[in-house]
């Protein structure tokens, strides 16, 4: 199997013996179109399997990226900065692993640095890597916090995610307007009520 990126270079996609070819993936989309009651040979749907498979490459590109590597470049010259660093309202677009429908929301990532800080865009990229996989929100919240904790070894980490699950708002129990809120607090964000409270008041 040879997956090509836009630049023509082969993507660093993990190979697994079970991974089907692109043609097989497109055939699977045709099967789902038939299942939905459609005619995959009609004009408007002819290229749909190709587009869906391409979309899947974007939705699930996080499997090919390593969040630890993203965080590994750190800076130590901070002139003794020792307050909370917070990147708030990071847009989240993920997919639930039970229904493969969108999870859309916001992520707030904070840490209290030890001796090292990381470029702020890297925090957003770590969120992106975990979001672009099939997920449950609880696990994704923990993964983001754990990755920052492991690589940066800060005094503490706090991650809060508020997100709408389309499997709940657009199907099933049909409760639009509901958000699932999850949090993972580590280090001083877990142990110190003052630090946790400061973080929570910053994201209100
Ligand atoms: Zn779901």
Describe, in plain words, how this protein is organized in 3D.
The chain has 204 residues and is an alpha+beta fold. 38% of the residues lie in helices and 23% in strands. It has eight helices and seven strands, in the order H-H-H-E-E-E-E-H-E-H-E-H-E-H-H. It has helices at 22-35, 48-59, 67-71, 120-131, 137-152, 166-169, 188-191, 193-202, and strands at 74-75, 85-96, 102-112, 117-118, 134-135, 156-165, 180-187. The strands form two sheets. It has a five-stranded mixed sheet, sandwiched between helices. Strands 1-4 form a two-stranded antiparallel sheet. Helix 1 (22-35) crosses helix 2 and helix 4 packs antiparallel against helix 5 (137-152). The chain is elongated and about 65 Å long. It starts with 21 loop residues before the first helix and ends with a helix.
Shape: elongated
Proportion of residues in extended strands: 15-25%
What's the tally of helices?
8
- SSE sequence, one letter per element: HHHEEEEHEHEHEHH
Tell me the structural class. Answer: alpha+beta
Which molecules are bound besides the chains? zinc ion
Name the helicity range: 25-40%
Average of pLDDT: 92
Strand order of the largest sheet: 5-2-3-6-7
Rg over alpha carbons = 20 Å
């Amino acid at each position: 199997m040879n997956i090509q990126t836009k630049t023509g270079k082969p993507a660093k996609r993990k190979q697994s013996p079970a991974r089907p070819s692109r043609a097989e993936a497109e055939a699977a989309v045709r099967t789902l179109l038939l299942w939905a009651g459609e005619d995959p040979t009609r004009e408007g749907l002819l290229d749909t399997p190709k587009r869906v498979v391409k979309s899947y490459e974007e939705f699930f590109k996080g499997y090919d990226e390593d969040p630890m590597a993203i965080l590994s470049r750190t800076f130590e010259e901070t002139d003794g900065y020792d307050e909370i660093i917070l990147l708030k309202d990071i847009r989240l677009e993920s997919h639930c692993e039970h229904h493969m429908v969108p999870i859309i929301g916001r992520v707030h990532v904070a840490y209290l640095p030890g001796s090292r800080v990381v470029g702020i865009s890297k925090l957003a990229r770590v969120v992106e890597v975990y979001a672009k996989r099939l997920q449950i929100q609880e696990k994704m919240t923990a993964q983001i916090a754990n990755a920052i904790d492991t690589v940066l070894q800060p005094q503490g980490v706090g991650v809060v995610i508020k997100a709408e699950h389309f499997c709940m708002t657009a199907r099933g129990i049909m409760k639009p307007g509901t958000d699932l809120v999850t949090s993972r607090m580590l280090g001083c964000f877990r142990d110190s009520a003052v630090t946790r409270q400061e973080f929570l008041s910053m994201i209100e």
